Amino acid sequence: MANEQVPFGIYAVEKKDYAELRCDKCKSITQLKDLTRKFKAQGFKVLANGR
Length: 51
Fold this sequence. Notes:
Layout: E1 9-15, E2 18-25, H1 29-41, E3 45-49
Antiparallel strand pairs: 1-2, 1-3
């Protein structure tokens, strides 16, 4: 359901016993990739919608 609210961007991140719903809307694929890399570097699994 959360993925419907963010057509292009990150809608959730999760790690072991922690999950966070987000609403990070991106304007370009480059911005989406950069944001995804930052979360993955912190150990999160990233749930996102792309084009």
